[in-house]
Description:
The chain is α/β, with parallel strands linked by helices. The protein contains 17 helices and 22 strands. The strands form four sheets. It has an eleven-stranded antiparallel beta sheet with strand order 7-6-5-4-16-15-14-13-12-11-10, with helices on both faces. It has a seven-stranded parallel beta sheet with strand order 18-19-20-17-3-21-22, with helices on both faces. A hairpin with a 2-residue loop joins strand 11 (161-166) and strand 12. Helix 13 packs parallel to helix 15 (386-397). The protein is globular. The mean pLDDT is 90. The structure holds magnesium ion.
Amino acid sequence: MLEINTIFYSAFVVSDSKMAHVNKQMGRHEHAKINSLNLMENLAEVEYIMSDKTGTMTKNELTLVALCCDVDSYFLKGKCFKKDEKGDIVGNEASCRSYVEDKTDFLKCLKLCHDCSLLTLPMADGKTKDVLTGASLDEQCLLKSIQDEKVAEFIYKSSKKIKIRIGQETLDYDFINMNEFSSERKLMSVIVRDLQDGKIYVFAKGAENKIMERLSPESSDSELKDEINAQVLNFGSQGLRTLVFAMREMSQEEFASIDFSNSANPEAIAEACERDLRVIACTGVEDELQENVAECIQDFRDAGIKFWMLTGDLGHTAKEIAFNCGVMSRDDEVNSIFTLDAIDSIDLKQCIIDANQGIKQSKSEHKKTTVMVSGQSFLIVSKLDDSTQELFKKEVLLQADSVILYRSSPKQKADAVKLVKTEFKDKKLTLAIGDGFNDISMIQSAHVGIGVLGVESN
Ligand SMILES: [Mg+2]
């Protein structure tokens, strides 16, 4: 009887139009697929849901809405914020275009430092159309946002040349090398020769901590760095995804000393190039939430299912999205939040002890509890003594109603799922859901794995 039911339930899922993905490009509905008939029974028993954020809880449809390129102003959601005579910060309506017009270094970095290219496609009416292609949606979004023939334009890129336009000027560059982005490195850089002045430049962009640790001493001490740090926090606290941009000139001697042809050791090339940088800007990109995501997560929480959000994003961005998605409540009378963001094992041990006491206290007051753990702290846990490790797993992570693992690598996402499975000796079922290539090992680690069809995946 149970088997017959299972087949019927499966058929409902497969034919459910609300669970189908609308492929806008191909103009068709792609229905859900079920790869295991045990799915229906397992779904009913799930006690832990571990979810990717970008593309799963959010739509992964991106818009550039925030920018900071200098010490005394920044652009955020249609307004330019500046200090007035009294020293108060006031926002006046402005366009992103008007804000960046004279920010030449940033515009160069934006147009040169990426892994996108332009494809010229023939159209039905005999004309052609340029289409931007590239693996990263963030990059495509940034490049498209300011693609204006009067401000800045990315015109052409081959394996040897790049052509861009900044203002009225068309600029040509020799493309020398690219140090690729990876989810571990969290930054990328390009090395180019400016054919206008013959100088060699490094342009880089990436996560704020990765760029900030590679700055020159002067840039590290600069006011601009402090301002950009402050705006990264500000943009992040609005739920925006942030990136920091930096550059430097490389001397001819230094350039000659780096062996760019040594493809066996790309890390050494990257390390030699990505140092002594000068920070120039930060950007904030908005990613809209999926429909009804907050109601859905609230239902899970009401049913006593523990919800874990696993993301590579900044703590601030993750926190804001978690509030908006109902993973935790803003009201501290209802929901206590404990953050484990330690730099060393002594610091972390104290954080764990405090969080354990806090969670016990909150439970006695019938409050919901959320633990936020940074990828860095998650890594340090393995260096702690056994009893603290046990305390962390059993009394902190597994006791919390929701957990947010931020700034985490794909491997840590999978490790989080394995941790729950191991602790409960497979007696409590886990469900992992994600849309990206980097979620595969997490999805495969869980009892129930769900791959979401989205912008990034298929
Ligand atoms: Mg994703």
